[in-house]
């Protein structure tokens, strides 16, 4: 036992070994934190799914236009569950995005990997985010077109409905 303790103290006195021991300790803390976060997100996902199932048909109504059922309550609930699951996946990907370089930076021989290879991971994600932000004005433009088209169609329907009723009459224009 004394030999093991002497070897451990000798390793602790060595600067390189001290960095490795600190790196292992910090890695254990980080992995424990990651596992805690994974467990917490799993519980939150289960609670969200249970709450959505409870709200099915009550707080989550079916979506219909006149007599046409566009989206049933069950289908809408399933879509919300999928959305919650997607948010969880994005959050976990972001956590792993932070976790991997953090773990690699704890050890002297892998610190260089973080600075060398991390940009290869960051570049595509950054590009996707920048392109999404650049597309937002186009989404606004599309929303304006949809809004205008909707009201033009409502006006057109009302106009031809009045022609059919006979409230608006054009000479030599048959209602048929």
Structure report:
The chain is mostly helical and 176 residues long. The protein has two domains: 2-106, no CATH class; 126-176. It contains four helices and two strands. A hairpin with a 2-residue loop joins β1 and β2. α2 (15-55) packs antiparallel against α3 (73-105). The N and C termini lie far apart (104 Å).
Properties at a glance:
4% strand; single chain; two-stranded antiparallel sheet; 2 strands; 176 residues; mainly alpha
Cα separation of the termini:
104 Å
Radius of gyration: 31 Å
Principal-axis shape equals elongated
Task: Work out the number of β strands.
Answer: 2
Spatially, the strands of the biggest sheet line up as: 1-2
Total domains, how many?
2
Integer average pLDDT: 85
- Note the total helix count: 4
Order of helices and strands: HHEEHH
- Biggest sheet character: 2 strands, antiparallel
Percent strand: under 5%
| Helix content percent band | over 70%
| Uncertain ranges | none
Overall SS class: mainly alpha
Question: Summarize this, please?
Answer:
The chain has 176 residues and is mainly α. It has helices at residues 2-13, 15-55, 73-105, 111-165; strands spanning 63-65, 68-71.
SSE inventory with pairings:
Elements: H1 2-13, H2 15-55, E1 63-65, E2 68-71, H3 73-105, H4 111-165
Antiparallel strand pairs: 1-2
Helix pairs in contact: 2-3
């Amino acid at each position: 036992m004394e030999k093991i303790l002497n070897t451990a103290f000798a390793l602790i006195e060595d600067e390189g070994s001290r960095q490795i021991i600190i790196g292992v300790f910090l890695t254990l803390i980080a992995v424990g934190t990651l596992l805690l976060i994974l467990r917490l997100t799993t519980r939150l996902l289960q609670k969200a799914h249970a709450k959505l199932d409870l709200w099915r048909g009550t707080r989550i109504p079916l979506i219909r236009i006149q007599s046409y059922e566009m989206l049933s309550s069950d289908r809408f609930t399933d879509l919300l569950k999928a959305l919650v699951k997607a948010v969880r996946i994005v959050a976990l990907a972001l956590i792993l995005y932070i976790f991997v370089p953090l773990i690699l930076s704890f050890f002297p021989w892998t610190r260089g990997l973080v600075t060398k290879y991390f940009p290869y991971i960051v570049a595509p994600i950054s590009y996707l985010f920048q392109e999404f932000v650049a597309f937002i004005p186009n989404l606004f433009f599309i929303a304006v077109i949809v809004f205008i088209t909707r009201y033009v169609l409502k006006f057109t329907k009302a106009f031809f409905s009045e022609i059919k009723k006979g409230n608006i009459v054009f000479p030599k224009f048959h209602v048929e």
